[in-house]
């Protein structure tokens, strides 16, 4: 197995997921790290958000993470051989009020990486832009959209359900 | 209290009702409003934030909390809280709503 210090972000996320999976803890990669995967590395996040979609007790995650050398620091985990920060946001795995139904599986050298689809990744980034005005997240959504086939009709309908239909109309020419 | 059985904590109900009425608040302000101790309120705010129900931002030296617009059950939770608020004693409703910061359409009674 590749040493942790040589793993890139996606490989590390897959490695952690595999380790947790062996202990019947399923988590899904979400947040900025997904942008890194779908933008061919044009965006790099320092955080790995693994959504605890099955509401596993924190102490089980902590002991599993400690087995592979991760140390709990507040609400996140750090490893002495990595500058990545791993967090386990509480589920459900959702995009606003919508439940995430499609999980993509990507085979990595270190294990299977379960993550959001490119279309859901775009929604996730747009959600930050819509609710917090985070321009960086809009840029990230555009990066993913430029590199992958996105179901924009689905994104538009979701934006409307989020009460952000007008906001989507304002940016759709830039992103579609 | 009305939702204490569901939420498992009197202070959690107090916080959520406060945020429902006023959209945002900070620990000391909420504790002062209910004439209760600061730390139990702060602890519940921290738990609600860790669970993704609310989010915080720094305003100067104050940590201000509000509902997380990305929380999956937000619409349902707020509908429940709005109904619960309508069952509160009128004087408490008035105190909560008197200072509500939500923008109000011009001409609507304060």
Characterization of the model:
The complex is a heterodimer of chains A (176) and B (110). Chain A has two domains: 4-116, 2-Layer Sandwich (Beta Polymerase, domain 2), CATH 3.30.460; 118-175. The mean pLDDT of chain A is 95. Chain A is 45% helix and 21% strand. Chain A is built from seven helices and nine strands. In chain A, the strands form three sheets. Chain A has a five-stranded mixed β-sheet. Chain A has a two-stranded antiparallel ribbon with strand order 6-7. In chain A, strands 8-9 form a two-stranded antiparallel sheet. Chain A has 176 residues and is of the alpha+beta class. Chain B has 110 residues and is α+β, with helices and mostly antiparallel strands. Chain B has one domain (4-94): Winged helix-like DNA-binding domain superfamily/Winged helix DNA-binding domain (Arc Repressor Mutant, subunit A, Orthogonal Bundle), CATH 1.10.10. Chain B is built from six helices and three strands. Chain B has a three-stranded antiparallel β-sheet with strand order 1-3-2. Chain B is globular, with a radius of gyration of 14 Å. The model of chain B has no long low-confidence stretch (mean pLDDT 89). The A-B interface holds A 75, 89-90, 92, 94-99, 127-128, 131 and B 50-52, 69-70, 72-75.
